[in-house]
Amino acid sequence: MRLSALLTALIALSSSTSSQAIQFPTPENPQARALLDRTQMDAAKLSAMLGFAKPAAQDWPCAPPLSELYQVAGIAGALPEDQLAPKVKAQMDESKRMMRKALRSSGMDPAMAPVSTFSNIELIPVKAQCVDGKLDGPVEYYLSFTSKMTSTMEQMSTLTNKVETNRNLMTDTVQMLIQRTYQAGEPQPGVRSIRRGSIVSHMTFENPAMQKMMDDSLSKTGSLNRASPSSSITFGAQDGVVAFTLNEEPKVTGGIFGINTAWTTKLGTMVMLTGAKVNNTYMYSDAQPLNVSRRNTETSTTESVTFMENYVKKMGKKLADMPNMENYREVVMGGKDMLEMRSCMVDNKPVKLDPCPVEE
After folding, report:
1. 201 with 138, same domain?
2. Residues with Cβ < 8 Å from 333, sequence gap 6 or more?
3. Are residues 201 and 335 in the same domain?
4. Other C-beta atoms within 10 Å of 115: how many?
5. Where a domain ends, among 269, 298, 327?
6. Which residues make Cβ contacts (< 8 Å) with residue 11, sequence separation at least 6?
7. Which of residues 279, 298, 317 is at a domain's end?
């Protein structure tokens, strides 16, 4: 399904019966609910915002601060280091440091951190004004690009029983419309970004036999080298962030003439409350809670509660019958049988601490 088809489907959903319409969540936390309500989002508004048109090319009224404009889209790495604003470079260096730390704590080589490259970058101002040669006031701009992210993984092969090096290449073709405010050339808190694109992911295996087996399997489901549409709208403010994401999910079934794959559009919602020391994040699939987490921004200590369908009950079994289920419990949410799993991460490693020392 192409992006245009995805938007058409969304419009149809917005006008169909409530049982078929995309469902937006209602957070139990009153602060999270208030932050979500401020977006005044519904299916019709979501569709309209994602349908933005590419603006006509025009010049900027003054030299644009590329590293800051690019950073909002996550492509500041497209610029040479000597063209990065000091704040942007410091933030990028810290992100790289945290990535290396996370890989080391997981027993992985930091050299295996994903590598991204960017091309076909087009930057067009929609609304901008300058004072004394610097952006000042509300700014809106269009940004399109192609990103390629390569990930390297060492994995145990089920065919050779040896550790092999495999690579995944994810190509993302993106169009964005971004709004933020500047004062005397300095970006102010609060960003709104609209993003739409398509993603193609391809895995390259060291073992040719594994490559053929994987490619054959993906071909049968129609997933091999398939461009999957992905879109999102993000509202950022001083007190938090709200993001809505539309992605396709496959449902594979067997038929008389072979495997059938149906692609359905799911709405993901993320609400993050930002605090002086701790961020609280709530994630949903349609109206169903997926995860609630608290993270200390100074120590990275994180407490997480994840919800999933109760597959144990569907199998006719009990939690006590299943191995490694000590951190799970059975709950009912919205009339559905679910499993709840709690975890605590300290120094990027799971620990058995109750309560989890997030506030320390």
Report:
1. yes
2. 288, 289, 307
3. no
4. 12
5. 298
6. 44, 47
7. 298
Q: Tell me how far apart the alpha carbons of residues 290 and 282 are, in angstroms, rounded to a whole number.
A: 8
Same domain (yes/no): 336, 187: no
pLDDT by residue, tens only, the chain of 360 residues: 333 444 433 333 333 323 346 889 999 999 999 999 999 999 999 999 999 999 999 999 999 999 999 999 999 999 999 999 999 999 999 988 888 888 887 777 787 789 999 999 999 999 999 999 999 999 999 999 999 999 988 888 877 888 888 999 999 999 999 999 999 999 999 999 999 999 999 999 998 988 998 898 888 878 888 888 999 999 999 999 999 999 887 777 766 556 777 778 889 999 999 999 999 999 999 999 999 999 999 998 999 999 999 988 888 888 888 888 878 989 998 788 999 999 999 988 889 888 899 987
Task: Give residue 319's domain range.
Answer: 302-360
| SS3 state of residue 167 | strand
The SS3 of residue 71 is: helix
Residues 179 and 258 in one domain: yes
How deeply is 343 buried, as exposed, middle or buried, from its count of CB atoms within 10 A (0-12, 13-18, 19+)?
Answer: middle
Query: Same domain for 253 and 141?
Result: yes
What distance in Å separates the CA atoms of residue 116 and residue 342, rounded to the nearest whole number?
Answer: 33
Q: How far is CA 187 from CA 86, 179, 182, in A?
A: 14, 11, 4
- Output the CA angle 313-315-319, nearest 5 degrees: 50
- Cβ neighbours around 82 below 10 Å, total: 6
Q: What are phi and psi of 2, to 5 degrees?
A: -80, 170
Torsion of the alpha carbons at 43, 201, 79 and 85, rounded to the nearest 10: 50
User: Could you write out the DSSP letters of every residue in 220-231?
Assistant: HTT-TT--EEEE
Give start and end residues of each alpha helix (H) in the chain.
Answer: 3-15, 30-38, 43-50, 66-73, 86-105, 208-220, 311-314
53 plus 107 within the same structural domain: yes
Reading phi first (left if > 0) and then psi (alpha if -120 to 50, else beta), residue 300 is in left
For residue 42, the SS3 value is coil
Give the total number of structural domains in the chain.
2
